[in-house]
Amino acid sequence: MKPFVLLSTRAEDVPADEEYALFLRYTGLEERDILRVRLESRPMPAFDLDSLSGIFVGGGPFNASDPAERKSGVQVRVEREFAALLDEVVARDVPFLGACYGVGTLGAHQGAVIDRVHSEPISVVEVTLTDDGRADPLVAGMPASFSAFVGHKEAISRLPPSATLLASSTTCPVQMFRVGRNVYATQFHPELDLDGITTRIHAYADYGYFAADELDLTLAAVRRAPVSEPSRMLRTFVERYAR
C-alpha cells in the first residue's frame, strides 16, 4: 500500500505525539503506513503525490485570520507551503482530509471568509449533516446529527462557490466541506477522544482558548455528551483511498 501523510503543526511534544497515536488508532493504519511530518520543526518535503494514498492534516495553534504582523516566521512558512501543496492537491483532486487547521488551510486556499465571528469554546457540539453531507461517501453510515469535539478561535463565515457544505452546527455554519470529489476539511476534530482533548486542554491552557479560572469548566464541557461517531470517517477515508 502507498503511504498516507500526516502533516502536523504542533510544537508541543505531548499533544503532537498523542495526535499521531490517535490518527493511527482511528485510521487503523500501522506506523509504516503513515509518513509523519512535523512542519513546526522542518520545511514540508516535496511530495510525489502519485506515490501517496492521501494526506491528513492535524490541528494546531496557527490561525489563518491572525494579522500578518502577529504571524511568526514559522507560521508564514507553513502557510506558504500549504498554499503550494494545495495548488496541486486541488487541481488533481488528490485525497485530502484536514482536521481543525485543515479548515484554515483549505479554506484560505479557496478564498473562504475566515474570521472570529463563529469561534467556538472548547466543548462538545451537535453537528448536523446537510443534504450533500448525507449523500457524501466519507460519512456514509453516520447519523444525520452527531456529537463532536470543537475548540477554535476562528471559523469560516462564508464558503466560496468551489466548496460544498457538508455539515454545520447551530453556532458555526461550516463544520465540514468538500472541494472537488476528494478534498475535505472539518472544523470539528474527528481524531479526538476524551483523553485526547483532555491532554490538549492542559497543554494549551495558556493559549487563550479559555480564561485562567475556567480550566475545570472547560474539562466539564467536553464531558457533557459522549463522542463516538466522528472518528469513523478516518477509517472510511483510508478504506476509500488506500492504494
What's the arrangement of secondary structure elements?
Elements: E1 4-8, H1 13-27, E2 34-38, E3 54-57, H2 73-92, E4 96-99, H3 101-110, E5 113-115, E6 120-129, H4 131-134, E7 145-152, E8 155-158, E9 163-168, E10 176-179, E11 183-186, H5 194-203, H6 215-221, H7 232-241
Parallel strand pairs: 1-2, 1-3, 3-4, 4-11
Antiparallel strand pairs: 5-8, 6-7, 6-9, 9-10, 10-11
EC number: 6.3.5.2
GO cellular component, one term: cytosol
Keywords: Glutamine amidotransferase, Ligase
Low-confidence stretches: none
The N- and C-terminal alpha carbons lie at a distance of: 5 Å
Mean pLDDT: 95
Total of domains: 1
Give, in spatial order, the strands making up the sheet with the most strands: 2-1-3-4-11-10-9-6-7
Report the major sheet: 9 strands, mixed
Helix content: 25-40%
Do you know the CATH architecture?
3-Layer(aba) Sandwich
